[in-house]
Design a protein that fits this description.
Strand content: 5-15%
CATH superfamily of the largest domain: Winged helix-like DNA-binding domain superfamily/Winged helix DNA-binding domain
Number of strands: 3
Order of helices and strands: HHHHHHHEEE
Number of helices: 7
CATH topology of the largest domain: Arc Repressor Mutant, subunit A
Number of domains: 2
């Protein structure tokens, strides 16, 4: 260690160890992280331009080293060469049928909301262009689309029972009535 690193060690090692131990429960891992931090400090001390900011520089190195530690702890799982397609095809069936239901529900929306959703969601126009086409301001166009989506959501929630995966992908649903989705089977699994 050169003279600068020794001074830094004497001044910061105890504080940094406590800082690390608050974030890493294993004492041996915390000790390893502390050593790695000081290796980085020693290697990069020459890059520090403003000596008055040494404390924030040291804590930034420490936080980044702790983050690297946790990233390296993530377990890696090997995927099999082939994944079963049956679950995906069932999921796609549910999504396709639910999409048909949503398209049907869109047709039941009041005209101004139906047009807004068709232009943005089905024809791919950005809200600004949709607003220009319908004679709305940009904020009016945004509000129209938001209201249309809210009305569609309300109709969907009233007419269908859904089962979603944790990430929001539909895996099952059941229509409560056939008035809004007459082409959809009663139970898709």
């Amino acid at each position: 260690m050169d003279n600068n690193t020794e001074k830094i060690w004497k001044e910061f090692s105890a504080k940094l160890k406590q800082f690390i131990l608050k974030r890493v429960s294993d004492k041996d891992d915390a000790e390893d992280i502390l050593q790695e931090v000081f290796m980085k400090i020693h290697s990069n001390i020459g890059t520090l331009r403003d000596k008055s900011k040494i404390q924030s520089w040291i804590y930034t190195i420490t936080r980044n080293t702790i983050i690297d530690y946790y990233r390296s702890q993530k377990p890696m799982v090997e995927l099999p060469e082939t994944l079963p397609a049956s679950e995906e095809s069932i999921e796609n069936d549910v999504i396709n049928e639910l999409s048909q239901c949503i398209k049907t529900l869109v047709n039941y929306l009041p005209d101004k909301y139906r047009k807004a959703l068709i232009l943005t969601e089905y024809q791919g126009l950005i809200q600004k262009k949709m607003g220009e086409k319908l004679g709305l301001s940009p904020s009016g166009a945004k509000s129209r689309v938001q209201r249309a989506r809210a009305k569609l959501k309300e109709m969907l929630l009233q007419g269908c029972h859904r089962q979603l995966e944790q990430i929001g992908i539909p895996v099952d649903y059941q229509t409560e009535c056939h008035c809004c989705c007459p082409n959809v089977s009663n139970n898709v699994k």
